[in-house]
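Exercise: predict the structure of this protein bound to flavin mononucleotide.
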Amino acid sequence: MLYKNFVRPVLFLKDPEKTHEQTVALLSSLSFLEGALERLFVVRDRRLQVSIGPLNFSNPVGLAAGFDKNGTAIKIWPGFGFGFVEIGAITAQPQPGNPQPRLFRLPKDQALINRLGFNNEGADAIATKLEGLQKNGGAPRISLGVNIGRSKVVENKDAAADYLFTFERLYPYGDYFTLNVSSPNTPYLRELQEKNQLVDLLDIIQARNREMARQLKINEKPVLVKIAPDMEFSQVDEIIEVLQSRKVTGIVATNATAFLRENLVTRTNEPGGLSGKPLKARSTSFIRHIYAVTQGQLPIIGSGGIFTAEDAYEKIKAGATAVQIYTGFVYEGPTAVKRINCGLLGLMEKEGFKSLAEVVGSEAGCKTSC
Ligand SMILES: Cc1cc2nc3c(=O)[nH]c(=O)nc-3n(C[C@H](O)[C@H](O)[C@H](O)COP(=O)(O)O)c2cc1C
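Solution:
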């Protein structure tokens, strides 16, 4: 209430991107408050624990990629109650992104449109930052995902080497890596979702994953792939086949949509990725499809239009093991994660589920009986 009635109206008076940058910078300077925030916002309950491959999250709600692109405020995120956080997208080369303005609020639709274009400090700078954090004992106590994108100046034919550079540079610091082949704001990036290109990319990344794990005497790091919501299910099926054959740990479904403008209340022609409420049903339909096709064998992180516990529950019932929020965090504010987690417990109790793992895919109707 406090956020929605008093803080958000003031924040929303200012330029969206400036407000975002200032908020992340402020949060980074307030990282000493993490413990106090934790007491306010963290929901501890074993029923909320979920696992994706070797990753264990204390609750299923993660911060989606793009919010903390440079890993600036890593220390504070656990304080808001997140079960995991994904930084990035990080590209091999530092880059400024697209010309401004490039981030737009659509309050009447509870949505955002962005065409930032992977503005980030680049793999070297961010790896150095994370190394420093690790040395000073400041690495986050929740799983850290690293979202990797392609540098704008690199052509798709050289994309694998570009992703590989960032993967290697960040390898010691990420608990998992998401290959982002689905941003609508880097020209031709989404073509990397096509079968042959995806095979090439994954073969190179997974081979290096095995090598580095052997050198460092650790287990291979989980690799996930994030897909767009703008394709036919037949293409999703091809992607699933590639991911399963390349031993990918999971799939993030979905990124923002380049389309779906027809039902917006706000009149806008701004190109870019639309996120928030208007994306919710589409992304859930992708989750439902992936869960059905894989019979639950490919873990799904659901992303798209999650604002409330009901939204998260719907995605988990459709087949997501965990979820991520971006636009919902902007609109709902600092209590969002706590409200989602408390609400999930309430919904589980109402329906007689003893753990969230039982809820995953339960909408399909065979979770408990087959
Ligand atoms: C401003 C903005 C920047 C984003 N940047 C990235 C990014 O760098 N990498 C990525 O994989 N997704 C990015 N996303 C997509 C989000 O991670 C998320 O998948 C999408 O917005 C749908 O979730 P939401 O409806 O909760 O926002 C971005 C989204 C927004 C709004």
